[in-house]
Amino acid sequence: MIQTSQLYQYFLEHPKVETDSRKAGPGQLFFALKGANFDGNKFAAQAVAAGAAFAIIDDPQYAQGEQFLLVEDVLKSLQDLARFHRRQFTIPVLAITGSNGKTTTKELISVVMGSHYPAHFTKGNFNNHIGVPLTLLEMATDTEVAIIEMGANHVGEIADLCQIAEPTHGLITNIGKAHLEGFGGLEGVKKGKSELYDFLSAKSGVAFVNSSESYLTDLSQSVNKKIRYQKSENPRPDIAPYEMKVISTDPFVKVAFLSSKGNLQEINTQLLGAYNVNNVMSAVAVGRYFKVPDEKMITAIESYCPDNNRSQIFRKGSNTFILDAYNANPTSMEKALESFALRSGDHKMAVLGDMLELGIYTEEEHRRILKKALDLLGNKNVVVVGKHFAKPAEDNKLSFFSNVKELRVWFLAAHFENTLFLLKGSRGIQLEKLLEPLETR
What we know:
CATH superfamily of the largest domain: Mur-like, catalytic domain
Number of domains: 3
Helix content: 25-40%
Shape: globular
Largest sheet: 9 strands, mixed
Distance between the termini: 60 Å
Structural class: alpha/beta
Low-confidence stretches: none
Number of strands: 19
């Protein structure tokens, strides 16, 4: 069996790691991971034939020569290798988790830090037990700061990811009703997410704590080194670097902070909705703590444009669509509806898709969110998509569609004009497909 220190020598010679045999190429290390429906060991020879320098396997029957490196467990070897690589760096490693907004916060912090330092950060949503190791292994030797996103859907997962990434700094965006099925309820979410604080406390790390968010102040009490930040109508000189004034959230977030010279500096973002204020606040707090010049920070945030179905704006004819369909849970849905209700416009329509992974809370939360939507917007301005909304919609005599295909038929027949739409739902509902036929009309 090959040990981690030995495997690292192979990695130094072949620093490109691949876990998908279909993407294997010359000079790579192929890690033959197992999944619920596949065994990567079976594809190790295929990866080597495609040019991979070595295949890391944990089933000896697939070893076919010196290019096949046998380990006890491929996943653990990948994680151990990532930790070994991370330990070659004496740099700040900032871990980001939370129920909502962690990817946007990660992106904002990354552009802020990248404007002043050689920064490495999680690409896309590579934030789980496989994605975090792969992200760490991509760190170049000149990296001066790393921003690592951590996702979780059950207690213990953040603790495991911290053992791999060993963050020196950490930030929890918020605590909300996300992945309730795996966490078992809100108390489980608190316990799971605060595992980041637990790690920082044990390792004398630094926590960035948004005092404007519920639960975070109490959950972070064990961390000795904290940078608190918050909203304020009048930022004060004594803690001004970590206070922010909200100027506007319609149509885009506009905020201001007190510069080192004592004057208010405005940031005009391309981010929609009041729920993005905290994400901007986090980026400013981290940037100022690491002494990123104000001008660079402002330019970086103002230049950032969301993508991948996260608070994107599309204009089709006379209609405007706010597409926020990358994911949804009760907390993010509630915040999106509240923000949408405050937006200017005479004609508004919320299209809400099912919220997934809620377990025993599914019916209760769909009823509650639908009531919230109807209270804010009225029955004529809300439609819902997905089986979990079916019964609440029927009880409220509301337009309901079982899938986006049915929704599109209704939408195209309605011939909307001068209407502002919110498209909000879980990834599995694929609300973005509502916009597809509009491309070719």
